[in-house]
Structure formats: C-alpha cells, structure tokens
C-alpha cells in the first residue's frame, strides 16, 4: 500500500498558508464580499432594510404561485452541451435596436427605488452605463425622467409607461421622457388594476412609510436605513411632481383599467421611437400588438406581482417567438436570478431577459456597489455556462437550444 513520506512541520510553510485578514468590523461589507450568488446578496439585503421594504421587493401577489412556478421552470431547463469547441473566447454581447450592449440583460422598470436605498434610480443607471446595458425608469420612479437624464446622461434609457385614458396626462409624461433623452417607451399592459400583495397589506405598507408606535422598534433595528431616509429628499412619484392628487387618486389615474389596443395605436401615432410592450401572456395578443407596429414585447407576468397563476413566460416563449419573433424582439422576465437562467431564456429563443428583483437585492444590500456585484455574478455565471456548453456567443446559444424537462 502506498504511504506518504512524513517530515517535521515547517513553520515557514505554515505561515505561508495563513491569510492575514484583520477582524471585520462591518459585517454587511464582509457578507457582501463573501456573497457568491444573487441569492446570497438577497440574504444581505434582507438584513439591511426594514422587513416592509424587503417584503415589498421580494413578495408577489396573492399566494405567490406565479413567481414560484417561474423559478421552478427555470430549474427544469437542461442544456445541450457541445464538447471540444474552442471556448477560450466568450462574447456575451448582443444588439438591441441596432446598438451593441455587453450583456443580454436589461434593468427592468421598478418603482420606488429610493425606498430600497437612498441613492435610488441614478445609482442603478450608473451601473447600467458602466456595463453598457439598458436601464428602464419606472413611471412610479422616485426620480423624474429629467433628474435621471441629468444625473446619468450617458446611460441608454427607456421610459416605462402605464397608459392613461386621459391622453393629455399620458402626453405630459411622454414629453418628459422625450425631452430627457429616453430612447424608447416600455409600455406595461398587465396592470388593469393593481395586484393583491398580501405581504404589503399585512405589513401596512405606505409610501412614504408612516411612523407608528411599532415603527420605533423598526428604526432601532435598521437605524442606517432610517437615517438615510430621513436625511435625503422626501420620497415621491417624481414623474407626477406638481399633480395635486392624493396617492390613491394618483394610483387610480395611473392604473387605468379602461385602456385598450386602440390606446396603443394612439401611442404609436404620438411616439416616433421604439415601443416595447411588457406584460404579454398570450400569442394572439402578441400578434395584435405586432400589427399595431410596436418593436418588441416582453413576456412577463410582472414577476408574479399582478395576476397570480398567470402564464409562466418561459413556457410560452417558443410558441410566441415562432409566431412573431421574425417581426419583433421577444424578451422575457420573472424569476431570473442566475446566469444560467439568462442562458435558458436565450436557448428558448429570447432576445434577452429583464431583471427586477435580482438587481433590487443588490440595491438594498449596498446601493450601486451591490448592483455592480449582481451584474458581475450574472456575467460570470453566464460566461461559465457558455464555455461549458461550447456556445461562444449569444447566437450560438440560440442555435444550440435547451430543453425543459417535463
Ligand atoms: C419592487 C418592484 C417594483 C416594480 N415596479 C414596476 C413598475 O413600476 N412598472 C413595471 O412595469 N414593472 C414593475 N415591476 C416589475 C418588473 O419590471 C419586472 O417585470 C419583474 O420584476 C420581473 O421579475 P423579477 O423581479 O423576478 O426579475 C416591479 C418589480 C418589483 C420587484
């Protein structure tokens, strides 16, 4: 039997193995440094902000079945690897409306970002600019289109719109986007009314947060978040600054359940740039939108935050790409948390994905730095998967395809 040759322990060898790190005083920083996945960052986020904030981001509508199904469907995707292809050079870039982006990932529109971290929308847009990605500003943003354009003039930006029946109101918001250098409108159509998010109701969520007796304890638990909230500009829906309406009145105007395809036609006639329609869940709706002359659709159930038990975007992707993919770009979103999820979507024919919660976990954990880390994790997971499947660019992923296991 083979035996190792023994020797006396060498102090020099021992000390060469020691990692000379001092004790960590900032535990959040340490946890961020150690985070390997977006899920790890979500855990840092959970500890960094009040429960009401984390639940608002992480939660979904009603029984939260849609988002669970989206994640479960991603986990059933199986790759189809090639071997012995030269995978030494991997290119994750793609083109969106004729211009190169470095990753097939777009920052989805998400409201109230300054609620999650005081640096808000501009911090995310700065990362988008640095990484050559597209950033979508939500209608419900806490930064106005002009403020975002002024703060991060170099970022490629799309403005997310909810169509309102009162066309003057819609025009006012569209004009702000046009004047502030937004390249495209991303029209969200899955919000005839707002979804029932039970966690938010149970947590008594209000924007801005109300200070009640119980809040004193919350302040004691997350003093940094509260200090940042109280020492920066008050939270507001910045695109509607100057509207003399209460929050509930504002919400009923913005989420207008009477809008139809006719309103999309009208939008097409007043906006000469690209229009992306987000929230499509059926093939006939995709076809009707394409006839109106929009440029892209996002198969989305709003991350499960509106209708619970809606269609799982990944499951209808191939059918919809087959029906309209030669005429418009097709994206999906909901539950994308890894580079492998991004690969899966492209393998089933998507042009790319939108991410919401993934980057918001980064925002809550550490503002722009957290978002930067999320993108680097997604990038390295995608690159790793591409190398291991022998697909060296986005077109090769699409050609290789993937399977959804039954
Ligand atoms: C906290 C939060 C706020 C959101 N706000 C908006 C919004 O204002 N407008 C919109 O069109 N979609 C909004 N969304 C939906 C996202 O654009 C996107 O569809 C969804 O986040 C994708 O799912 P994911 O979070 O699992 O990536 C929001 C999502 C989250 C998580």
From TrEMBL:
Coiled coil region boundaries: none
Domain FMN hydroxy acid dehydrogenase: 30-406
Swiss-Prot/TrEMBL cofactor(s): FMN
UniProt xrefs under CDD domains: alpha_hydroxyacid_oxid_FMN
Keywords (A to Z) from UniProt: Flavoprotein, FMN, Oxidoreductase
GO molecular function annotations of the record: FMN binding; oxidoreductase activity, acting on CH-OH group of donors
Similarity comment text for this entry: Belongs to the FMN-dependent alpha-hydroxy acid dehydrogenase family.
The protein's name in its UniProt record: Unannotated protein
Organism this protein belongs to: freshwater metagenome
């Amino acid at each position: 039997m083979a035996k190792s040759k023994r020797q006396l322990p060498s102090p020099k060898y021992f000390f060469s193995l020691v990692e000379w790190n001092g004790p960590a005083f900032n535990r959040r920083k340490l946890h961020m440094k150690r985070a390997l996945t977006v899920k790890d960052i979500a855990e840092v986020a959970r500890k960094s902000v009040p429960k009401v904030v984390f639940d608002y981001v992480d939660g979904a509508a009603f029984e939260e079945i849609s988002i669970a199904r989206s994640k479960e469907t991603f986990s059933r995707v199986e790759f189809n690897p090639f071997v012995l292809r030269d995978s030494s050079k991997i290119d994750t870039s793609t083109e969106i409306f004729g211009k190169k982006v470095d990753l097939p990932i777009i920052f989805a529109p998400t409201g109230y970002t300054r609620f999650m971290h005081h640096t808000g929308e501009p911090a995310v847009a700065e990362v988008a600019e640095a990484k050559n990605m597209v950033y979508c500003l939500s209608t419900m943003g806490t930064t106005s289109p002009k403020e975002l354009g002024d703060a991060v003039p170099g970022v490629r930006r799309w403005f997310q719109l909810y169509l309102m029946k009162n066309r003057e109101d819609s025009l006012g918001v569209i004009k702000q986007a046009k004047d502030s250098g937004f390249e495209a409108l991303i029209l969200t159509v899955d919000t005839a009314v707002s979804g029932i998010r039970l966690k938010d109701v149970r947590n008594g969520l209000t924007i801005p947060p109300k200070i009640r007796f119980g809040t004193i304890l919350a302040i004691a638990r997350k003093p940094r978040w509260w200090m940042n909230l109280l020492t920066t500009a008050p939270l507001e829906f910045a695109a509607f600054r100057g509207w003399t309406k209460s929050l509930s009145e504002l919400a009923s105007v913005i989420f207008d359940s009477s809008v139809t395809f006719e309103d999309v036609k009208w939008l097409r006639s007043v906006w000469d740039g690209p229009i992306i329609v987000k929230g499509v869940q059926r093939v006939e709706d995709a076809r009707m939108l394409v006839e109106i002359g929009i440029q892209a659709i996002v198969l989305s159930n709003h991350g499960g935050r509106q209708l619970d038990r809606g269609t799982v975007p990944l499951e209808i992707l191939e059918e919809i790409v087959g029906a309209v993919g030669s005429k418009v770009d097709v994206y999906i979103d909901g539950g994308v948390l890894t580079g492998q999820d991004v690969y899966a979507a492209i393998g089933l024919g998507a042009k790319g994905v939108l991410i919401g919660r993934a980057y918001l976990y980064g925002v809550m954990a550490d503002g722009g730095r957290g978002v930067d880390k999320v993108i680097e994790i997604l990038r390295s997971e995608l690159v790793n998967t591409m190398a291991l499947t022998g697909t060296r660019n986005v077109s090769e992923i699409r050609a290789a395809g993937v399977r959804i296991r039954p």
